[in-house]
């Protein structure tokens, strides 16, 4: 058995605002320790249940948050920025299941620190269906025939996962009060829950089918201002929908759509405000 784990940060227990997930802020160092320990609960359980290989992809911001020296010794860690497939780097058809931990709900929805890649994105769509990071990542897994067997995060991330992926196991480590407040489990209790849910997910992985992406998907990204849309539309093949801040790109498959999304949001972040 081979398991892939993508670890984001906003959905980790006890982390509720930007001071926890921004490396320049005072709460970050203790937050990355909690993040690492939470990931380790999932990793260790997978090994205990027979996994021969566990690949972990650090999937938050500059993607260098997880403390490798605190991880299970058999773990292989993918870290660092500029990865061709970002939050799902290294995922391919050799895996028996994928697990997303520390995840959050998409932009414009309830939940702790909700967003879709960058705060300049109001909405993302695949074929006019709203989607966030969780859904896009699950589609890439589905392209390779890999089911997403578990999603851990806040209650709204869990709801989003359950709507997208029938029979997925979810682990709710905190309940959102607002976008920057939550009722959280302690790390010890969250760890116990994650172990139980990981075991359940691995046991029931045969009940979860890969999320099959549409053929020739149309990617649409609605930005918060026109400057961001102008920058994103500089990518060859992208175009602004007239009289909107929406930029569209017709992709040949979900992998091209995913990489187009990465380029468009990176370009959009070049917008200056005055």
From TrEMBL:
<dbReference type="InterPro" id="IPR027476">
    <property type="entry name" value="DppA_N"/>
</dbReference>
<dbReference type="InterPro" id="IPR036177">
    <property type="entry name" value="Peptidase_M55_sf"/>
</dbReference>
<protein>
    <submittedName>
        <fullName>M55 family metallopeptidase</fullName>
    </submittedName>
</protein>
<dbReference type="InterPro" id="IPR007035">
    <property type="entry name" value="Peptidase_M55"/>
</dbReference>
<dbReference type="Pfam" id="PF04951">
    <property type="entry name" value="Peptidase_M55"/>
</dbReference>
């Amino acid at each position: 058995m081979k398991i892939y784990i993508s670890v984001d940060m906003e959905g980790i227990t006890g982390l509720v605002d930007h001071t926890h997930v921004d490396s320049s802020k005072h709460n970050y160092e203790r937050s990355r320790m909690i993040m690492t320990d939470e990931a380790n609960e999932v990793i260790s359980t997978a090994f205990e249940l027979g996994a021969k290989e566990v690949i972990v992809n650090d999937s938050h911001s500059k993607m260098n948050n997880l403390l490798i020296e605190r991880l299970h010794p058999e773990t292989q860690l993918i870290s660092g920025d500029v990865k061709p497939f970002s939050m799902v780097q290294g995922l391919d058809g050799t895996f028996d299941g994928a697990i997303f931990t520390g995840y959050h709900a998409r932009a414009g929805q309830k939940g702790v620190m909700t967003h879709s890649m960058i705060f300049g994105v109001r909405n993302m769509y695949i074929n006019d269906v709203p989607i966030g990071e969780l859904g896009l990542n699950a589609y890439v897994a589905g392209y390779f025939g890999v089911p997403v067997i578990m999603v851990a995060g806040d209650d709204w991330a869990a709801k989003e996962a359950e709507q997208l992926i029938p029979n997925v196991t979810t682990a709710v480590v905190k309940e959102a009060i607002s976008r920057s407040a939550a009722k959280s489990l302690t790390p010890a209790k969250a760890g116990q829950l994650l172990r139980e849910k990981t075991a359940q997910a691995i046991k029931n992985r045969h009940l979860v089918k890969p999320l099959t992406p549409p053929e020739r998907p149309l990617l649409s990204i609605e930005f918060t201002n026109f400057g961001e849309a102008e920058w994103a539309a500089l990518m060859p093949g992208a175009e602004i929908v007239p009289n909107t801040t929406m930029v569209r790109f017709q992709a040949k498959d979900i992998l091209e759509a995913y990489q187009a999304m990465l380029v468009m949001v990176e370009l959009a972040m070049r917008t200056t405000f005055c």
